[in-house]
Each structure stands twice: as C-alpha cells, then as structure tokens.
Amino acid sequence: MSVVAKKGVERELVPSGSHVARCIKIMHFGHVPNVNFHGQNVITDIVRLIWELPNEMRTFNEEKGPQPMAIHREYTLSLADKANLYKDLVGWRGKGFTQVELDGFDIFNVLGVPCMLSVIHQPNKAGNDYAKVVAVSGLPKGTECPENINPLFVWDYNQNYDEGVLENLHEWFRDKIKSSEEYKAKQMVGEEITGSEPNTQESPMPGLGDAPPDDGGEYINDLPF
Prior knowledge:
The protein has 225 residues and is α+β, with helices and mostly antiparallel strands. It is built from 5 helices and 8 strands.
C-alpha cells in the first residue's frame, strides 16, 4: 500500500497496476490558464474524467462505510491523432474513429461507461509520489464492472451549467471553473441581460457535438461509445 503525506494528512494512493473502472464524472473546465511544456503561459481547453474503482473499496468516513477509490485524468479537449484524449478513447472503445464519428463525437458519451485503467506511481515536482492514469482500454472479454456507487455527474457551460451546483463544488473546482473564459462570458451576459428574458439557446462547446448517427454497421452495437 502506498501512502503519501499531504499537509500533514496521510492519503493512500490508488495501487499501481490494472483496474476495473467506470467513468462517473466529467468536468469540462473550459478554456483556463495553463503552463505548457515550454513553461509558457497559455489558455487551454481542459476536460477532466473521473473514474471510480469498484474493486478498491476503502473506508474514508466511518459514517459512510466502504466507498470506492477514485482517480482522474485531465486532457486538452482535442481529438487530434496525437492528443492524449484521442489515444485513450481509441484504446477504450477498441477501435479508431471514422471522420464522421470524429466530427460529431460528444465526450459526454463516456459517462457511466466501464473500462480498464493502467495506473503507475511517479513523483511530482515536489518529489511526492502520485497515482497517474497512463492508459485506458476496454474491459477484457468476460470481465464485469459493478454498477456505479457514486452518482454520475457532468459539468459544462450549456445544459449542465448551474450556479447553485457550482457553489457546492470543492473550492479547487470552483476556482478552476471561475478562471475559465466560458464562466467569465456567462457572467458578462448575465450582467447585460439583467431584467430581460434569459437566452436559453445553447452555445456550441468546442469538440463536443451531437452523438454520431448509427450507420447500420454491425460493429456499432459492440462499441461502448
């Protein structure tokens, strides 16, 4: 068992190795300040996927009893061939995308979908080990994933935007969201239309479109998304 100290509190890491997992949360933070590999300040469109690991149960709170461990990975919201998100989605579904599928792919299609995660431990800049998702693949034949224990959750700036929900999120999530260009645009629009009817038309989200149509191919029903 790996345990790291963080601000005086011991925190168990997700064990390294392969894990049955299910995606339970998708957080589209939007275009937020970031630092690239060259140390330059940039604005990047970020999405975070969070998985629960039903076979790694721990008691974090005596009142709640055993709960599944969780792990996340953040991605640049890009489906370019070399993008980490694209690579993990291909590994997850076990098949590449056609151009038609790419043009209409909705990242929220992976919510609730089971998979296998490959996890390693490596040191961060401070020298403390952390658990990192390095690969995502489909479940091997005959392997089952229990139903999700935690509720499924989505954050975005369209139909899932809710100021009340935002204020109940962890402070780190709130700060990240409030630093985004999308959030700031929402606030500006809100100020401009105070006293008028709200604009209910959904704004397009980069990289997130409607689900691709079923072209009748037999393989479609075998794909998780």
